Amino acid sequence: MLQKAKSRLKNEMQPVWHRHWQGLPMRPHRGQGYVQGMLPRDPLAPHKQRTEENAVMITFYTNRTTLGYIMKAVILAGGFGKRLKPLTDQRPKPMIEVLNVPIIEWQVRWLRKFGIKDCVLCVGYMRGQIFDHIGDGSKFGAKIKYSVEEEPLGTGGALKNAQDLLSDQESFLMLNGDVLTELDPNRLNLAGSHTIALVPLRSPFGVVELDSDSKVLGFVEKPEILDRWINAGVYHFTREVFRYLPENGNIEVTALPALAKEGKLKAVKYQNVFWRSIDSHKDIEEAAKEMQAVRMS
């Protein structure tokens, strides 16, 4: 029976994870290594009975991805940024600066903050500027590889074009090249195989608050709209997603609807966390103000 329990624990703790039972601390380890955990001498005993006195410690080796931690990310950095002209006449959209730092650098820094150092950048338009600024990623504590699009492939085609660079991963993170955020991407890995991040929809206008007598109580600038959610442009996928991707086309109208139709797509809602998509000149200004407010700079 103990052997069965060991097997069960190994399946549940595939990643490198040091864990104690009830009342004891949990601590994750990134990468491959040894897994250590406590098993009750009676494997059928409820979890609350598992203590150092009535449990045994087992250790085994694993090279599986760490539980709850995404090990590699793909950034779709090949966009033209037509709505950001004339800025994008001389640079690719991911090199647009917010607080004097290019969007792509903010993204690499954000990924490193959450333990993701291996990245694949899907590049196309004016890619030389991204090569020059990011390089191999070592100056940011990251490891960067590049998937080059000789012609625009769309978000789905760009990801499929990078498939060979992701062959060593069971799963990975993908994000659009115009997203600035502080959300925790590892929540997506815990939620399911194919997962999309959602953020609250904001009103494009300021809102006037009134009481029952139409007396003005105050003004709220672009508040979040309750129970309305939008795609945050951050995703977690397994390798299965490549079966749904087009050679040329957008993932939003191909793979995502197909996965949803088959019941394979889940969502994680993020609230009270900084998120911005840079699509206009005004977005740059507003993102800079918000980032200063949350001290990202």
From TrEMBL:
Gene Ontology molecular functions: transferase activity
| Keyword annotations from UniProtKB, A to Z | Transferase
Q: Which CDD domains does the entry mention?
A: NTP_transferase (cd04181)
InterPro entries in UniProt: Mannose-1P_guanyltransferase, NTP_transferase_dom, Nucleotide-diphossugar_trans
Provide the leader sequence positions: none
Q: Does the keyword Metal-binding apply?
A: no
Residues in domain Nucleotidyl transferase? 72-291
Give the coiled coil ranges: none
The UniProt entry, under PANTHER family, shows:
SUGAR-1-PHOSPHATE GUANYL TRANSFERASE
Q: What is this protein called?
A: Putative nucleotidyl transferase
Organism this protein belongs to: Nitrososphaera gargensis (strain Ga9.2)
Q: What is the lineage of its organism?
A: Archaea, Nitrososphaerota, Nitrososphaeria, Nitrososphaerales, Nitrososphaeraceae
